[in-house]
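Subject: tRNA (guanine(46)-N(7))-methyltransferase

B.,
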Amino acid sequence: MLRLLFRRRCLVGPLNAAASFSTKPSVRVRQHVNPLAQRYQEPIALPDWTAIFPPPPAKVHLDIGCARAQYLMKLAAIHPDTCFLGVEIREPLVVEALERMKVLGLPNAHVLHGNMNVHLDAIVASLTPDYTIGSVSIFHPDPWMKKRHVKRRVVNDAFVADLARVLPPSTPIFVQTDVRDLFEYMVETFQDHPDLYIHDNTSQDTNAMGLPTDRESVVVAECGDIYRTTFRTKALTLA
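Prediction pasted inline below.
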């Protein structure tokens, strides 16, 4: 039986976030973009990571669907010895995030415009000659609640299998959302691959990264529920 991992709490007072990272959005973008559209299937240009991140070797945290990357920037400031790479499908948000990172002077943070259901292999291949992916987060992805749109969700069978194939053994994958139906779907999708993943089914009261996301803070402040769990890749890769 699926076990839901969440806690409901109400917060009063300032949120645990540095004010310098919170800015008014400078661009307006559509909340939803169709990842199946042809424009998001094209190859993307990938940089020389040694020219962007601190010298290797270093661990990279991969944040899938980072939006404006304010959360990523906070983590990068707290953990200067870890590299943080966000991937976001909405290009205007990527441009905005990169400009903000430059202003803040965060050499260990970067954002790519990409579609993780298409570009995962290329992104990981571009990193791994010099860097090691140490962890992955999938926090509050687009739920695509209409039945006809479920195929647009970033977490699907093919993506879960691809993650297991390209990530190092025992890589933690942190999953979190405030949408119960989506959480059940994501957990069941990962659990459909028992040869690829170990499910950490222990109770998780706080964000695995040690810092709440912006969305998480808003939901908790409004007494909403957060659903979270962790999967780890096994020491096994697909043929």
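The radius of gyration is 17 Å.

T.
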